[in-house]
Amino acid sequence: MTNSDVIIAGIGQTTVGEHWDVSLRELALYAMEAAVEDAAGLRPDALFVSNVLAPMVSGQAHLGVLLADFAGLRAIEATTIEAAGASGGAAVRAGFLAVKSGFVDVVMVVGVEKITDKVSEEVDEALAATLDSDYETMHGLNPTAQAALLMQRYLYETGAPRETFGGFPTIAHANGAQNPKAMFQMELNPEAYIRAPLICDPMNMYDVAPDADGAAAILITRSDLSPNNHSSTKTASRVRIAASDITTDTLALHDRPDPLDFRSARYSVEKALFQAGIQRDQVDFYELCDVTTIHAVLSLEAAGFARRGQGWKLATDSSLNLQGELPISTFGGLKARGNPWGASGVYQIVEAVSQLRNNAGALQVPNPKFGMVQCLGGPSSTAVTHILELVD
User: What range defines the domain where residue 286 resides?
Assistant: First the structure.
């Protein structure tokens, strides 16, 4: 470890769920305060907020200054970053670059979303704005329907048995059942998956992550400024950001030569592995984007953990379980933990840090050294990949 290493010094999160009695600013503050406490009081010089829906659902834009003011951090740099479902990862990358450049010593990244400020129909309309407005949204497409089209095409091309997709939410719920911060702390019976009602053929209700309220925060700094001890772990374990990449593809799905090739996810993983100086088989766990089951399958294929058209087979063995070769969704993923859109990418980082600190309790992956985290905006229109490393 060198003094120029970028370290995650503190983490904080709220429970994911329906926070009817808490405002957006209060929800964010709870996560921010927890991150500061975990970092032994380290104070940020800059604040990057990741959010997707607040202007449309909560009626609140300009979140950077709102949250800086509410948290007592007036006069610091503060801004909001939006990249659909990849917003959290994009904000973490912005924080990483700010600290790595030397222009900022300590960055707070907080992801926050308050879905329950509107009824579901209004939320669906707001989420549809993350697609191509002229050529997709105007014709009635929304993110769930778009994913259903991808899944239908995948089933047609590969001949994969429809019921095998249930392995992915089953893994997520098995882990989420032991995560006190998860929205759904319950296991999923495979038979229940098969019997579940369709919401957008061929996807049923267990194929789609639930929209939810939540906030997660991290503090990023240089290794020479990071406190020696974490209040949550009482150890000197440190986690550095070994790689950070963001790659984009077309926004509209129909503009791609192959809609089942998540190219940006593939390129982002390849560049992140190169930055970190590691091979794919050195990754000890993978926090992937399971906003739908087809996203999980195509992400595993794009990342090189499965061959094209073979990703569905990974859910039929034990390789993705906590004790397997490549644990995924170790705290429940978006599916069981819940999907607070702009905050999900930050939750993934918080969870990965907990794993690398050996602080995951019953959800602990055995002796992890490297964790890979990827969040996606849409069908990999934006892909953000981070590789985190335990350095001491």
Answer: 129-209+241-390
Instruction: Give residue-wise pLDDT tens across range 31-88.
Output: 999 999 999 999 999 999 999 999 999 999 999 999 999 999 999 999 999 999 999 9
Q: Is the pTM of this model over 0.85?
A: yes
Residue 288 tokens read as: 């992937």
CATH at 37: 3.40.47.10
Sign of the C-alpha dihedral, residues 90, 219, 216, 315? Answer: positive
Residue 98: exposure state from Cβ atoms within 10 A (0-12, 13-18, ≥19): buried
Average pLDDT, the chain: 95
Alpha-carbon Rg for the chain, nearest whole angstrom, is 19
Name 211's bridge partners.
339
Q: Does residue 1 lie in a domain region?
A: no
Q: Is the peptide bond before 210 cis (omega within 30 degrees of 0)?
A: no
Cα distance between residue 6 and residue 1, in whole Å: 10
Specify the 3-state DSSP secondary structure of 70. helix
Residue 234 covered by a domain = no
Instruction: Check whether residue 102 and residue 245 sit in a common domain.
Output: no
Instruction: Check pLDDT > 90 for residue 205.
Output: yes
Instruction: Give me the phi and psi of 245, to 5 degrees please.
Output: -145, 145
Q: What are phi and psi of 50, to 5 degrees?
A: -105, 130
Task: Note whether 181 and 304 are same-domain residues.
Answer: yes
- Alpha-carbon span 324 to 327, nearest angstrom: 6
Mean pLDDT of 249-273: 97
End-to-end CA distance of the chain: 8
